[in-house]
Specification:
33% strand; disordered N terminus; mainly beta
Amino acid sequence: MLINLALTLLLVLAGPSYQEQAVATVGSLKPDHEWKSISRSLWFDGKTKRLVLKARVVLREGVLEHLLCLKSTKEHESILATDAAPRQIHAVLLLTGAQPGHPVRFAPKFEPPTGTPMAIELRWRQDGKIHESDARQWVKDEKANKPLGIDWVFGGSALYDDPESKERRYAADEGDLFTVANFGSAILDLPIASSANDADRVFSAFTDRIPPLGTEVFLLLGPRSDKANPASNPGSKRDR
């Protein structure tokens, strides 16, 4: 079961609007004044209809399960971590026009996650310049020996009733935000079979394309244009 529109409006429109408070020690970025502030690390750009999320680089080498995890959860296998609330990330994705499908299903038979394909742009400051890259450029497909060639889809995680507390919970609160290995709790996942078993994992951090640990990064997300060809053109780094 997915978060409904009423909850979306409650989280986004009725929620508090925070001002930027903390300054990153590595490559700090300033949000655009036209972005609607949802929390200190989450905005909605009404002009481009994109979600903007602040994270930091927490891993540059090794095999991956995540592009992005929740802070203080799975940094040992994720390139980026954020303190933005998973429920609010889901809610703002709906405002971009993205439609959730369903997360990965393992039984009675395997079904890959479905949902709107998402374009993810990364923006960071390094050596006095603003750099931009398609997020897929930071993930290496070890079998193909090249960057990830498919888009993440908006699977949408799930709501469930905690058997102990009897409270309704959002599965992504456990830390699985944008994954490269299949998790039923992920908000964004890859629409393929991608194992989380150590021996079978095929994605790793593309080290020489990732800035130093601690670098502050903006992720800008919106539905992938139908005119784009995500499989053949993962994008390239741009400086300005």
